[in-house]
Amino acid sequence: MHCNLSLKLFSAIIIIVSNAFAQQKPPASQVAGIPVNYDEALTGDYILPNVLTLNNGKQVKSIKTWQKQRRPEILKFYEENQFGKMPPRPTALSFNVFDKGTPVFEGKAIRKQITIYFTEDTSRHKTELLIYLPANKNTPAPLLLVVNFSQNSNATNDPGVKPSLTWTKEGRRVPATTGRAFGKLDVEKFVLAGFGIATLCYTDIEPDALDGILHGIRREYLKNGSTQPAPDEWGAISAWAWEISRAIDYFETDKDIDAKRIAIQGTSRLGKTVLWAGASDPRIAMVIASCSGEGGAAISRRNYGETIKHLTAPTRYPYQFAANYQNFASDYNSYKVDGHMLVSLMAPRPVLLQTGDTDVWSDPKGEFLAAAAAEPVYKLFGKSGPGNDIMPKPGDRSMLNPLGYFMHAGGHGTIPSDWDVYLEFMKKYL
C-alpha cells in the first residue's frame, strides 16, 4: 500500500498500514485514545432504523416505492453525511489503450492495459487499468474488477505489466519497486472459468493520507480557493469509488467485455469503497466486500470494535469521509442510517459480505446482523438473504444467497480460499 505523506505524518502511516492489513489479535483496548469494546454484553441497547420506513413514516410496500422514494432518501443521506457527494463524469475523460491484447499465461489469457486520464493535463491525474480476459472467447466476458492496495505491476505474476508509480513523502510519483496486497491475483483461475479479471490501484487517483487532497483528484474540484471540500462533499472513499465508475466507463467501450456483468471487489477500507461504489453506480452488477467493517457493512449502533469515533479521530481517517460524518461520532443513535441500509442500496443486485471470525476490530457479527436487517429489501424483489439470525460457522458456504454472507476462519482481509468463494458466487449470479 502506498501513500503520499508529509514527514510529520510518517508515524501515522504505520497505524494506517497495521489497520489496513491482517490482524489475528484484537487491537489495544484504546485506539487514538478512544476505548474499544470487545465484550458482547457491553454493546449497548439500540434500535435499527427500519430500512422500509420512509422519512414521512409510511411503509414501503412495493418495488416502485422503494426505487422512487425510499432508496433515494437513503442514498442522499449517505451522500451528504458519510461519504460525500461526487462530481459527475469529467468532460475531459479519455482512455489510452496502449496494450490492445497480448497473449499471456501460456495463451490462456489476453492482457489489456489502459491509462485513464481525468483531466486535459494528462501528466497528473490518471489511473492505470490492467485487464485479463479469457483467450479464444467469442462473446463479451463478464468481469471482476479488484480494487487493490498494490500497484498493478505487483498485483500479478506477469512481467509484462507496465511498471507502476508510487507516491513519495514529497508528493512526487516515482517507480514502485514493491507493493502490498492481500495476495497476488490468480488470473488463470478466473479466465479458465470464463471470467475476465481486472485491477487498479486505489491511490492512483487519491493518496491514502491525511494530506492526500494536496495531490489527489479532489484538489481539482475545490471551489473558491478552498483547501478542503465542503462538509457534504466527497472524502477519499468517494474519490476511490469515483475511480471505479471511470473504469466502468471504459468497460462500456470495450467490445470484449460485457459491461452489464461487472463485479467489483475490495478489502478493508476498499470494502467500504466497493459498497459505496455499488450503491452510487447502478451499472455495477455485483459487489463483493471483504471485511468492510465500521463505515461499511457493520452495524454502527453496536458499540463493538471500531466505531465512527475511531474512524473520524483527527489522527486517523477523517479524510476518507465527508466532514459531516464527524457529527455522529459521539452519538451513533442519532444517525438516520446504519450498515444494513448501505447494503440495501445494492438491491436487487447480488452482494457478498465476506469477513473473518477473528477480525473483531471489523465486527463480523455486526456485518452478519446488517445482512439480516437488509434482507427485507431483497425479499421485496423476490430475492433471499441470510434467512435467519444464526451466524454461520467459519467456512460455511450455505449463505451464498443473492444477499450473501461468508466468514472464513481467520483475521482481517482475504485469504487464498476466499477467491474460490468469490468465483462460486460469481458463477451463481453474474
UniProtKB/TrEMBL annotation:
Pfam families: GCE_fung (PF22244). It is an enzyme of class 3 (hydrolase). Keywords: Hydrolase, Serine esterase, Signal. Residues 1-22 form the signal peptide. Residues 233-382 form the 4-O-methyl-glucuronoyl methylesterase-like domain. Gene3D superfamilies: alpha/beta hydrolase. GO terms for molecular function: hydrolase activity. InterPro entries: AB_hydrolase_fold, GCE-like_dom. It comes from the Bacteria. This is Alpha/beta hydrolase family protein. SUPFAM superfamilies: alpha/beta-Hydrolases (SSF53474). Its EC number is 3.4.-.-.
